[in-house]
Amino acid sequence: MVLQVESVEQFNELISNSDKDLVVVDFFAFWCPPCQASKPLYEKLSQSKLYDRVLFLKVDVDQCYEVAQQEQVRAMPTFKFYQNGEVIDSVVGANMERVEDIIREKLKLTSGSERALDENDLKSMRMNPFKNPFVIILIISVIIFVLRFILF
Questions:
Q1: Among residues 35, 41, 91, 96, which one is catalytic?
Q2: Residues 22, 23, 29, 32: which is the catalytic one?
Q3: What's the helix, strand, coil split of the chain in %, to 5?
Q4: Which pTM was predicted?
Q5: Could you tell me which of 60, 83, 86, 82 has the C-alpha nearest to residue 73?
Q6: In sequence order, what E strands does 2-147 have?
């Protein structure tokens, strides 16, 4: 289960006083397509029995901007990994394979053992960006914006 952080105080309490071996935090934004794409995979990681020694948190950077500022989050999604209240690693971008690799490394799970995310999960993250309507709309908008300045 992923726990939604609502305040700086709650965040600091959860990071500092977790009884889990590892805390993973997903800093996301509702309007961010890569954040939305990684959301179901992050949920899948949190529900896996393999990672029951991990506390999974998520922080909406628009609602909890103080937390994002405190943790110096500059891009979304950003995944940060904490042990004993300290940041020990991070991943910027929706690289869910790397997120799982870091979890496995910090929990000292062997490389040959079972994984929560399978190849089909990861394949969905590697889809052609030009099949994404958000990307197409963004590209068209940029072209129109540039053409307005060139032609007028």
A1: 35
A2: 32
A3: 50, 20, 30
A4: 0.81
A5: 60
A6: 2-4, 22-28, 54-60, 78-83, 86-92
Q: Say which residue the tokens 């997120």 belong to.
A: 99
Catalytic: 32? yes
Q: Which residues contact residue 139 at a Cβ distance below 8 angstroms, ignoring those fewer than 6 apart?
A: none
Residue (of 126, 72, 132, 69) closest to 97 by Cα position:
126
Q: What is the pLDDT of residues 52-64, one digit of tens each?
A: 999 999 999 999 9
CA 28, 32, 36: angle at the middle one, nearest 5? Answer: 75
- The model's pLDDT over 6-56, given as tens digits with 9 standing for 90+, comes to 999 999 999 999 999 999 999 999 988 889 889 999 999 999 999 999 999
Q: Can you read off the two tokens belonging to residue 77? A: 């999604």
Is residue 35 a contact partner of residue 21, using CB atoms and an 8 Å limit?
Answer: no
Annotated active-site residue 35? The verdict is yes
HSE-CB at 48 with a 13 A cutoff on CA atoms is 18
Cβ contacts of 31-40, under 8 Å, gap ≥ 24: 31/62, 32/76, 32/77, 33/132, 33/134, 33/135, 34/76, 34/77, 34/93, 34/94, 35/76, 35/77, 35/94, 37/94, 37/124, 37/125, 38/77, 38/94, 38/96, 38/125
